[in-house]
Amino acid sequence: MKLLLIIDDYLPDSTNVAAKMFHELALELKNNGHDILVLTPKPLQKEPLTMQKLDGINILFFRSGRIKKVGKLKRAINESLLSYQAFNYAKKYLKKNPCDGIIYYSPSIFFGTLVKRLSTLWNCKSYLILRDIFPQWSIDNNLIKENSFIHWYFNFFEKINYKSADKIGVMSPSNLDFFKYKYINISKFEVLYNWAQIKDVPRVKNNFRVSLNLENKIILFYGGNMGIAQQMINLINLAKKFTENSSVHFLFVGQGDEVELLLKEMTNNSLKNITYLPPVNQKTYLEMLNEVDIGMFSLHFNHKTHNFPGKLLSYMSYSKPILGCVNSGNDLADVVNTAKAGIIVNSNDELGLYEAAKILIDSKSIRNKMGKNGRELLLDQFSVKSISKQIVKNL
User: Fold this and answer.
1) Domain coordinates of the chain in residue numbers?
2) Domain 207-381 in the same topology as domain 2-192
3) pLDDT one-digit tens code per residue, 278-294
4) Which helix (H) or strand (E) holds 4?
5) DSSP 328
6) What CA–CA distance (Å, rounded) separates 198 from 185?
């Protein structure tokens, strides 16, 4: 099959986990004999449309406005235009190069109209990989008011996004339950777990430990987006509790709305046990991850939907025990805790998070055992091979 993959951010320039995951999916599909084309925006590029090849994958970049590292209003406007810009700039190419199926990724919620036009043009099916239930999580976190104009606006495009797909893959059974109560046509929905391309882990070099002066430290690592949904204060407060333990250090790498909060807390509380680094490319990220001891994550306690952050797959791939906190009822906690791949507590359980961290910090054998369990869990349930077969079967 010739397959079109659509996402709002992609390699080689992206530092987002989603871009890495989508490229791994593209490679797996290619290795299985499919012809792959990726369509994605490239903000502010001079030409309306450019083609690039990465690892044998053809990537079609269309010009757009900025949708990352920009104010919320400007981002909303620029994302709203994605479908129009994609079709306007790429329509000649796409009409001459029809595809047999479409796989698209949300966020963004604004590719629905593009997918509808292309699936009609090519008479093909589409599969939506739904990783972020928006605008619901923004309502949960009081970023937008329910039943306001902005909620109505986003909800309008959310419905188009779902209506345009022949099948929709959500990331957990709890998310499937959420849609059973929210949407009538639940037959469209199924569970599609996050995935990773599982490779042999390279030998640890400790280059970053040396350059950051973190030799002989137990490093708790957070890599990825630092936004409202991540409730970063959970991990910041955790770091505060270990300021007297000179053997423990917290390393944060990434970007987002709460980076400013992190830096402010570091300054105001003279937190010498935290290092912050801006986003790095995927190769550097994985080299860095290979040298740390514990992988951290956090989700906001107000979430009503259930998320499985992509960063956890990288942690498991590199056999790092998982330490984190989630909203109440999130089945991610059951998955990780049952597999003994780490320790996950409720997001409003500050003491529980501290006690979990202490268990991992105090015992290298527990860290090693849980890290090994995490990799086994990844191989068993979250391999890109099984995910690609599931998607293609629906197309």
Assistant:
1) 2-192, 207-381
2) yes
3) 999 888 999 999 999 99
4) strand 2-6
5) T
6) 34
Q: What is the mean pLDDT of residues 368-383?
A: 92
State the pLDDT confidence band at 306, using cuts at 50, 70 and 90.
low
Query: Do 36 and 103 contact (CB within 8 A), yes or no?
Result: no
Whole-number Å distance between alpha carbons of 27 and 329: 34
CA dist 138 and 118 (Å) reads: 30
Q: For tokens 């044998």, name the residue.
A: 56
In angstroms, the CA 16 to CA 74 distance is 20
Alpha helices in 298-383 (DSSP H): 311-317, 331-338, 350-362, 364-381
Superfamily of domain 207-381: Glycogen Phosphorylase B; (3.40.50.2000)
How far is 271 from 277, CA to CA, in rounded Å?
15
| 206 C-beta neighbours (distance < 10 Å), count | 12
Mean pLDDT value across residues 123-127: 98
Angle at which helix 112-122 crosses helix 149-164, to 10 degrees, equals 20
The residues, any chain, with a CB within 8 Å of residue 355's CB and separated by 6 or more, are none
Output the 3-class SS for 341-363.
Answer: CEEEEECCCHHHHHHHHHHHHHC
253 and 280 Cβ atoms separated by less than 8 Å: yes
Lowest mean pLDDT among 76-85, 95-104, 303-312: 303-312
CATH class of 2-192: alpha beta
pLDDT of residue 285: 92
Average pLDDT score over the chain: 92
- State the average pLDDT over residues 312-319: 92
Three-state helix/strand/coil letters over 171-220? CCHHHHHHHHHHCCCHHHEEECCCCECCCCCCCCCCHHHHHCCCCCCEEE
Q: DSSP for 26-68, please give it.
A: HHHHHHTT-EEEEEEEEET-SSSEEEEEETTEEEEEEEE---S
Please check whether residue 110 is in contact with residue 83, taking contact to mean a CB–CB distance below 8 angstroms: yes
pLDDT of residue 27: 97
The mean pLDDT value for 106-127 works out to 97
Lowest mean pLDDT among 110-124, 153-167, 304-318: 304-318
CA–CA separation, 3 and 22 (whole Å): 13
Tell me how long the chain is.
395
**Cβ neighbours of 275 (radius 10 Å):** 17
Compute CA 237 distance to the chain's CA centroid, rounded to the nearest angstrom. 24
